[in-house]
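Ticket #4471: structure output looks truncated?

Reporter: J.K.
Steps to reproduce: submitted the chain below (305 residues) through the standard prediction queue, then opened the result file.
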Amino acid sequence: MSATPLPERRPPVELRPRRSAGKTVKIVARYALVALMVVWVLAPFYFLILVSVQTRADSLRVPPVWFPHPDFDNYVTILKKASSDAPPSAPSDLIFPGIRNSAIVATSVAVLNVLFGATAGYAFARFRFPGNRSIPLALLGSQMVPAFAIIVPYYIVLRNLKLTNTRLGVIIALLSVTLPFTIWLLRAYFQGIPRDIERQARIDGCDRFTVFWRVVLPLARPGLISAGLFAFMVGWNDFLFASILNTNTDSMLVQPAIAGLYNVRQQSFGLMGAGSLLAALPTMLFALLVQRYLVRGLLSGTGKV
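Returned output as attached by the reporter:
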């Protein structure tokens, strides 16, 4: 008598919960909102690229030409000054020297911010003295003062010091504007570093400066990069101080140079678009390279007062 084969056992079927219509609508609305935000952010850059590669006739057309044949004459006009030592003969000749001057000013402001802000922020975070809590609050409150309210005193002081129409005068003005926030940011970041690490280094024989230089600063690298990037962006994108404190063509920064392309006699929209795009590239590339440290630096210690 042969044995009856047992029926094949099938694995249990996993029942997935059916997605409700309301949840589907929420997901679609979420993706639509994200797409809208992406378009909102990228549309100005596309319009900037569009204007920079158009001819003057295409840039004045109504309705605009959204997909023109690219013309790079505007970039050639700006970049040809890079290989020429001739004095500027047109407003567009000031853009590339302006990029170079802005790079010098912004880099100097960033380095000095990190240098002074790190030492001051560490002092406020680790030492106890009269005003170690009120002074950072006062420094942060100074950021509420509009730049238009202090530009005239700055001009008078720098004129008496014979620092107007120089890059050094713009650096000093921008340093006084950006340094309070840098001190506040780095103070909060240093407060997030455990004191036990510094105590162990002191036990091993390190003095206070060695602890600060070899132990604290490497741990505070994200905060230092965030502070430096913030100061660099402010120095690079500044227009008010750069246009009022410095009117010399030899030391003119890029933002006033781009604004000089629009005047009563001529409106060079294509050159303005090309110059604006070239001026935006350094900060965009720098921010993309250090975005990981930037987010960590800005979020660390933000709740400390």
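Triage note (M.O.): checked the attachment and the full token line is present. The chain has two domains: 22-71, 81-299.
Status: closed, working as intended.
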